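Kindly inspect the following:
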Amino acid sequence: MINTRYESRLAMLRDAMARSELDLVALGPSSHMRWLTGVDPHGDERPVLVLVSAEGAAFLMPEMNAEAARKGTDLPFFVWSDGDGPSDALDAALSSLVKRRSDVSIAVDETMRTDFSYLLTGLFDNPRITFTESTVGALRQRKDPEERAALSKSAKINDAAIMAGFDALREGVTEAEIVDTIYDEMKKQGARPGFCQVAFGANAAMPHHHSGNTPLEVNTPVLIDAGCWWENYPSDMTRTGVFGQPSAEFLAAFDAVEAAVQAAITTFRPGITGREMDHAARVSLTEAGHGNAFLHRLGHGLGLDIHEPPYLASSSSDTLQEGSVFSIEPGVYYPGRFGIRLEDIVHVHNGELEILSSLSRSLIRRG
């Protein structure tokens, strides 16, 4: 029998479809499908879809994947073989779900392969196509208690892993060796390593630096950005420290980045846009003389995907509502000198921001 969690999500999706006047939602093998149904089929060139209408829901599923996928759901399957191809099975699935093939409004999974979407939309006359921002995308932004608990546990494991990295700093150690230390701690805690950026000195001036064999020298800033996975939910956090003594210039910039974090947090109110949050942090850094060194958006949502809506950027109209989980991560980057970023993941709970990490943002000093 289908898990009641997914029954509830299907019901919420149909309510959202009615509000958006949508006849059909079509999802490919993606985090959208996993969130809605719990099914996470192998994704390749063989079309896999879950189709949802007001009348029902069904899977288009390759024969070779059907047995494994059926273990996770009792939604009906329309199975196709490599010998026959997917067209007839897809046509039958649509006939069971929609009453007409013209003047139909369809929300297509924006992460789905283009050939999958063309296969689907080609069976309709002049369909009105949109994406899932008002349906699955909007619903995924409101994290339920189970999701919040997994995200919180992932954050706590990540806290310990990042501190293990800072504790392993010593003269001559390489960025790559600190990455290994952090990954080892994640595994020790039962999590799956996700990503890790360790940047010494001027390397931190590249926001997406790839950690390598740079050795650590005394009096060097250190930036660590890492995340792991716990029960399919990620963490993501950045802390900046120093091995030895920091320069006055570095300390002033560090304080400015922390002030930008505080500006964003204090600006928050339920329903605020990502643009407004980004603006608050950007104004703070500009007033401190670092505005031109803030090279990226303030933050991104976090859930089944490590980057998902809502986005906190100067171009974003996404709203931050009860249940939203997102990063606040201002930074400044000075090529050839240093980079500083401070990142926390926050959860909107009872109208306020709750930080999932327990690790202070204060400058971490070692050496």
About this structure: The chain has a mean pLDDT of 96. DSSP finds ten helices and 18 strands in the chain. The longest strand covers residues 220-230. Residues 90 and 120 are 8 Å apart (CA to CA).
